[in-house]
Design goal:
By secondary structure, the protein is mainly α. Helix content is 67%, strand content 1%. Among the domains are: 135 residues, no CATH class; 43 residues.
Length: 446
């Protein structure tokens, strides 16, 4: 049964994804259109002009048409002075999913050779389902890596598994890892866990190549969501600490720093280059609009909304994270925090400041999704908390806590999907259920 654990999780997440796909008719909508545009533009057009991608009309019939219709004007985003679509979404997610997109095209080509007549447009069901499956595969791999990280922290296999299960099923990871997968959020968590996994490897086996790997991952995190690149502070502080302790000399530290910073900067520069060549002026990019968002009383933004907003706040929408944060301050008071926790807390604080200033957290989305790359910090805290609860109260308390917060999150997701989500979510679910009921009554009446 242990060997089937992760395959079962994959099948469960994929089943949720397919059920949602069956109801909505597609998996690409909202912000996902911007992320998905990279795949079509890179593979079919071999360019970085996303204008035709933003003119595509997303619905099930048009997606699967042999000659899909397009809108007269660019949708969702604006255009620059030349009329080119301003795709401000980042390409990290598309880099991870490109192999699955190519595989989907191969399936379509082979199927058409066998006279299946599938649309080879890049938007049809085969492409969206295959890329969605790829995203879910990354989610399951990140769960496996999360368990390995906790075990490297000398936590038991049982505690590691329960902690990872609780983090995924009691936070927004459940929603973005199964229901709404074609966004950047799965990539943020996967890459942040991969970064932390290599960081633990570095601490155990301090090889120079690990700094290069960490730099590459940090760069990819920046390509996924720019604020995720702040995770690099973990390596920078670790290098500084090694120098202060006399573990490495200043020349050795400089070598490590260069190996880390160089690939990170080069990779992130690809995104900056796209911004420079696409946007007319720096302050027209949505990421920087907060700089002009001022009133007579000063900058107009809700500094603590990303944490405490009743609908979108990280701590209010997913209270298990709030419990973990309270436990962290308890550990601080008892002087029992670990070095890794301290580093990740600095990363979390930097993210909080940038996310609060940027303001993207206020968009209609489930939970504190902009903090997903910080969730490994809360994973470590949850594992330590569960270990403490097990010692004090036994396994029964663990299952009670897990059941309560998982049920709470599932109900919260259901509320969001049915009553709050505006795009391809609750409204379509309710319409589908209503149509099904009407069809059933007509059938019975006939």
């Amino acid at each position: 049964m242990k060997k089937l654990y992760f395959p079962i999780l994959f099948l469960a997440f994929f089943s949720i994804f397919l059920a949602h796909y069956f109801v909505s008719g597609q998996a690409v909508y909202g912000d996902g259109i911007g992320y998905y545009a990279y795949l079509h533009s890179w593979y079919f057009d071999a360019d970085a002009d996303f204008t035709n991608e933003y003119k595509h009309i997303y619905n099930q019939e048009n997606n699967n048409s042999q000659d899909p219709q397009t809108a007269e004007v660019v949708q969702i985003v604006g255009t620059n002075a030349t009329g080119q679509a301003l795709n401000h979404f980042s390409p990290g997610m598309a880099i991870l999913l490109l192999p699955f997109y190519v595989l989907a095209d191969g399936i379509v080509i082979i199927a058409n050779v066998l006279r299946a007549s599938l649309a080879r447009s890049g938007y049809s069901d085969v492409y969206q389902i295959m890329t969605g499956m790829g995203a879910i595969l990354y989610v399951v791999i990140s769960m496996w890596l999360s368990e390995r990280i906790l075990q490297r922290c000398k936590l038991s296999h049982f505690i590691s598994r329960v902690a990872v299960f609780l983090l995924f099923f009691a936070t927004c990871l459940l929603y973005y890892g199964s229901f709404d997968v074609l966004n950047s959020h799965f990539a943020s968590y996967f890459l942040s866990v991969l970064f932390l996994y290599h960081f633990f490897t570095l601490r155990k086996i301090p090889q120079l190549k690990q700094y290069f790997f960490l730099g590459c991952i940090a760069g990819l995190l920046g390509l996924t969501r720019p604020q995720d690149a702040l995770i690099g502070i973990v390596v920078l502080l670790d290098i500084w600490r090694r120098v202060k302790r006399g573990d490495v000399s200043w020349p050795q530290a400089a070598r490590r720093l260069m190996l880390f910073v160089f690939p990170a900067v080069i990779i992130f520069a690809l995104l900056v280059f796209q911004w420079i060549t696409t946007f007319d002026t720096f302050d027209t990019h949505p990421y920087f609009l907060w700089m002009n968002s001022t009133s007579e009383h000063g900058p107009s933004f809700d500094f603590f909304g990303s944490l405490f907003h009743p609908s979108n706040g990280l701590l209010t929408r997913t209270p298990i994270v709030f419990v973990a944060l309270v436990f962290f301050f308890y550990l601080v008071k008892k002087r029992k925090t670990t070095y890794i926790l301290q580093l990740l807390f600095v990363f979390f604080c930097l993210q909080f400041v940038l996310i609060s200033l940027q303001g993207g957290w206020s968009a209609a989305a489930y939970g504190g999704r902009m903090y997903i790359s910080s969730l490994p910090f809360f994973l470590l805290l949850l594992a330590m908390l569960l270990s403490w609860l097990r010692q004090k109260f036994g396994k029964h308390m663990l299952f009670l806590v897990m059941s309560f917060f998982v049920c709470l999150n599932v109900l919260s997701i259901a509320s969001f999907v049915l009553f709050e989500k505006g795009v391809n979510g609750g409204r379509q679910v309710l319409q589908f259920l209503l149509k099904s009921e009407i069809t059933a009554k007509n059938t019975q009446g006939g």
